[in-house]
Specification:
The protein is of the alpha/beta class. The protein is 41% helix and 28% strand. It has a single domain, classed as Vaccinia Virus protein VP39 (Rossmann fold, 3-Layer(aba) Sandwich).
């Protein structure tokens, strides 16, 4: 199934990038960035001379990477599709690489925040749980994680997409070492759930 998903994005990268540019969530971006700045200040005692570091996990064509960079963050990202990585690199700079969530290896305690906006939608429950473990290892203590996902219980097609309940995602976060800060929905896409959490 994973090969089918990657093939879909490889074949439709340009159209996906166009649609993604029109489907962004400024409210969640703002809330996430505010929490990341607070976490960075707390971890450094307010004396850091470096910008907070953000990882865009599943960055697609780089839409949100550009937002983070323009907001003054040190941002980098990865995606499973080489075609989307190529677009993101062209649009957002060189700190983008190809990686598979199934075999994710991230530097330990390196990020003040991880942004996973609809990047877990192709993972079954066990895949989401593995992703939480990877995120926990990569985020600094007290750092911030945002996950956005389509909620429900169904499995969609073209490409295959999992829906998860808000309760299940919150449980995986807590099991993975995160405390939920807030949970809500995207007013522009009510089927989309957003959870903001802090690494314990």
């Amino acid at each position: 199934m994973r090969d089918e998903i990657l093939r879909f994005y490889e074949q439709n990268a340009a159209e996906y990038a166009r649609q993604a540019a029109e489907d962004w969530d400024p409210g969640s971006l703002k809330a996430f960035c505010e929490q990341v700045v607070k976490a960075h200040e707390q971890s450094s005692g307010g004396h850091s001379e470096t910008a907070p570091r953000i990882l865009d996990a599943g960055c697609g064509a780089g839409r949100d990477l550009n937002y983070f960079k323009e907001a003054g963050f040190e941002a980098e990202g990865f995606d499973g599709s080489s075609a989307l990585v190529e677009i993101a690199t062209r649009e957002s700079g060189p700190k983008v690489w190809r990686a598979d969530f199934r075999m994710l290896s991230l530097p330990k305690e390196s990020y003040d925040g991880i942004w996973a906006y609809r990047s877990l939608i192709h993972l079954p429950p066990e895949g989401c749980q593995r992703a939480m473990a990877s995120f926990f290892s990569a985020i600094k203590p007290g750092g911030i994680l945002l996950v956005a996902f389509d909620f429900g219980e169904a499995l969609k097609t073209e490409p295959k997409t999992y829906q998860h309940s808000g309760e299940a995602m919150a449980s995986w976060l807590k099991q993975g070492g995160f405390a939920v800060i807030s949970a809500g929905e995207n007013p522009r896409a009510p089927e989309r759930k957003i959870i903001l959490a802090r690494r314990l």
